[in-house]
Amino acid sequence: MLKSFASVQLISDISAKCIRSSLRNIPSSVRVQLESSDCFRVPDFPEIRGHIPSTHGQMVQGLLDEESLTLYASCTVHGEPTARQVACMLDVTLYGPFELSEELGSWLQEYDIFLQDPQTCHLDVRYCNPQRLSSDDMGSCPMLVQFVARSSGRIHLQAIAEGPNLLDMLDNNVDLEESPQPRSIRTTLKRHQKQALTFMLRREQERHFDTRQPSIWEAIDTDYSRHFLNRVSNADQLEEPRQFYGGIIADPMGFGKTLTMIALVGSDSESLNVNTTFLDMMDVDEDDPDVATTLIVVPPPLLDTWEEQLAEHVHDGQLSFHRHHGKSRLSKTEDIGRVNILLTTYHTVSADWKTGKSVGQSPLFSVRWRRIILDEAHVIRNGNSGMAKAACSLNARFRWAVTGTPIQNRLGDLASLLKFTRVHPYDDTKRFDADISHLWKSGDNGEAIKRLKRLAVCLLLRRPKQTVCLPPRQDMRCCIEFTRAERDEYDKIRRQAITRIDEALDQDSEVVRSGVYVNVLQQIESLRLFCNMGLHYHSRHEQWNLKRGTDWSSVAQHDFDLRREMGPIICFICFGTIDLTDTLLHDPTTKHSFSRCMKLTCSECLQKLEPPGRLLECGHNPPCPSAFVSLSSIAIDGTEIVPSAPARPIGLPSKVAALVEDIKNISSDLKCVVFSSWRLTLDIVAAGLEQAGIRSIRFDGKVPQKGRQTVVDRFRNDADVQVMLLTLNCGAAGLTLTVASRAYLIEPHWNPSLEEQALARIHRLGQTREVTTIRFFIRDSIEEELSFRSKMSMYNRH
């Protein structure tokens, strides 16, 4: 908190004008930045310039010249929003030292400026309006957030300033030409999609070292010889480097990457005869015959999404596709050539690869595909996993990896994608480590980033978010105060948690000490859950304590999920990682081993043991108990214990009450999505919405895969259903929910990338309304600390 600052608000209704060079609609209210006494700009709309009349110019310049002041300005547009020039009113919020408030109030009165009570809070400071209430004691001034909440009777929202993103260093916003619209594609491609198509078509062409296209290698001719220079590392060699075709599409979420990849297939289908027979497509000089088919590999939950997208965007009869999964697997190689697209899953590829290695070739590994597309390609980031090895073993002419997060936990994640795309020489992980990762780990970040950028520009396409013309998005945070009863109970649980952790740390036994990690996780979860559930927490907590007992097998799954929420878990045999994103890859037959001391053995390492699949001891003496765990989304959504009677006389928890109140105050035709890590929280939210007469629908791990599209369709089409309640791991990937324009995140998560993936479900192509996202947190609680640490982890984990 800025303890030495006080807020002086509000200089209201300064008349001004907005002048713009394009006809893009302006929202009714936007944030602006004052640049001079007569000029302001709109950061979210660079084409707009604002003009302040001379009657206010001297006063505005005086405020700008006072270095101790921080100014926040907003603009409310009046008149026709599509006109070239529109009238507007400026509101300016002043933040400055408490000692300056009396002098500032008097100075503003000389300009006939009378400060208004605040309606918005930008900084967590005390409120002092010297023209209304004079005070010599800053401590007697109310907190601004509390004052706003009391005066408005509604929750108070603070704007979130967008911070840096490490993935932004991969941005290469080159102004590419636009490829023509493929005739087979029904949906008109956006400009950025046609540019992506140009990038991909160029990457699939035969390349020469003397072209102007970005390349890792440069041919240098001398009087005596020709040698080849690696532009990334500046190493050279005499042997001509082998070519690779394809690359990585890493645009942020919401760019319509699925449609773009469909358009790529549609582009080459026009030059290929769909009715060509299998024999016509065989190349006898190849070990595997060529087919004109594109293989698309996706996580299981996205099979339906891809089929829906193909049906929506492709003209009837233009691109044929088949699902190679479960009972619909193709058994004959000849059948592959009869379709343009074969859809399958990472699990199917992995299973067929293992089968093909031992009992003859699978159809997937018996041909050379025209193209392979890996969707959500970051799932193969562990290059040692069987899934990654299987994907890399597929044979294809063109290879594409599609992911909005090519680097999730470490630079090595990108190395796995380079291995799949066969980017020479960086398909060799050791070479990537030597040329790039080693520099980063040794602290030479500047050179590592330079080399990474030089590599990325040759094969990776990632554009800034501003490339896509989407409606404005406001990211807000909402600070909630506990009631007195909730605060007393929270502090009691916090003291108990500290005592239990201290007692565990004081133990001499190695086995007992190994349980400290579990104990810490459990206490953290208790505090986080109380922030959501308030006084409803105890009915759940007491039942869970009864269930836990001393049997590790009964609680291992729960504690594994808690640990996975906090970040990647490393297998202590192969050093591969597992985190929340792997929930997409859940296979009910796959089990991992997890010990009470937090040691993980992944399923693939377990299968290499003798006998295969047995539990592996952790190495402690005596060994800590171990149990099998899975990646099931049902497990991670929460336990099966439901708090009794959410609508008890104690009322709704403060956080849930604030959420329900905010939804009540918006238009009933404005749809919302609500995310939480736990089904338990959503149970209480659902009860609160029902009490308020607001209809909602659920989407969590309990919804079977076959029924998920039905839930989404009902939310889109049923006007009476205003709210969708989603668990974070189910709603963070693969869904398009642009029918909603307001998203709530009930609690902060350890992984801010997962938060952004979830909130991006509503801010993507197809959205027509201005979007608001709201993140809740409890003041002076573990949630404030968690929110800070999760943001810092984004910058330190690589």
From TrEMBL:
GO-annotated cellular components: nucleus
Keyword ATP-binding assigned: yes
Keyword line: ATP-binding, Hydrolase, Nucleotide-binding
Ranges of residues in domain Helicase ATP-binding: 238-424
BP GO terms, sorted: DNA repair
Pfam families: Helicase_C, SNF2-rel_dom
InterPro entries from the UniProt entry: Helicase_ATP-bd (IPR014001), Helicase_C-like (IPR001650), P-loop_NTPase (IPR027417), SNF2-like_sf (IPR038718), SNF2/RAD54-like_C (IPR049730), SNF2_N (IPR000330), SNF2_RAD54_helicase_TF (IPR050628)
Entry GO MF terms: ATP binding; ATP-dependent activity, acting on DNA; hydrolase activity
Domain Helicase C-terminal: start-end pairs: 662-798
Protein name (database record): Helicase ATP-binding domain-containing protein
